[in-house]
């Protein structure tokens, strides 16, 4: 059996009560020191080094996720597509898809190659967000634009439309203007 430490008398009494110096249990000390070390690490990670997502970043991520879920369950509206065009995660996903699927005809920056320049103020099939979404999802077969919704699905088409909307009005040099000048949609 392990030897147990005896209570150490402090050498004074108060109101007839003798005070002893009792050692704390080891399990209590272990939890205490672990909590102190964890607290220091947490403070360094989130508040000093800023390597972790803070409360505001977590809130923004949840808010963006809620917008994406709302977009998936609601019918497409101009306001919803404009909100998605301001969401960095949605536009980043749309940009990746644009580079993979659309850059062959519109170039990676959208300035046009075979397809029209998507960054100027001229539009062939309407400049409203829902018209842009419809053009991407249904395509324009007579001009060589495929319908992307059957291939990519509704959510990915929404992110593509959000990316195109976010770059509208950038007026990048590229293919000459085509269609009707309808201006900026924002």
Architecture overview:
There is one protein chain. It is rod-shaped, with a radius of gyration of 31 Å. Helix content is 52%, strand content 9%. The strands form 2 sheets. A two-stranded antiparallel ribbon has the order 1-2. It has a two-stranded antiparallel ribbon with strand order 3-4. Helix 2 packs antiparallel against helix 3 (78-85) and helix 3 (78-85) crosses helix 7 (154-167). The model has no long low-confidence stretch (mean pLDDT 80). It has 186 residues and is mainly alpha-helical. It has helices at 26-48, 55-73, 78-85, 88-106, 129-138, 149-152, 154-167; strands at 8-14, 17-21, 122-123, 180-181. A hairpin with a 2-residue loop joins strand 1 and strand 2 (17-21). The longest helix has 23 residues, at 26-48. It starts with 7 loop residues before the first strand and ends in a 5-residue tail after the last strand. The chain has 7 helices and 4 strands; from the N terminus they run E-E-H-H-H-H-E-H-H-H-E. The protein has 2 domains: 8-48, no CATH class; 64-181, Cytochrome c-like domain (Cytochrome Bc1 Complex, Chain D, domain 2, Orthogonal Bundle), CATH 1.10.760.
Total individual domains: 2
Helix-and-strand structural type: mainly alpha
Order of helices and strands: EEHHHHEHHHE
What strand line-up does the widest sheet have?
1-2
CATH architecture of the largest domain: Orthogonal Bundle
Question: What is the topology?
Answer:
Elements: E1 8-14, E2 17-21, H1 26-48, H2 55-73, H3 78-85, H4 88-106, E3 122-123, H5 129-138, H6 149-152, H7 154-167, E4 180-181
Antiparallel strand pairs: 1-2, 3-4
Helix pairs in contact: 2-3, 3-7, 4-7, 5-7
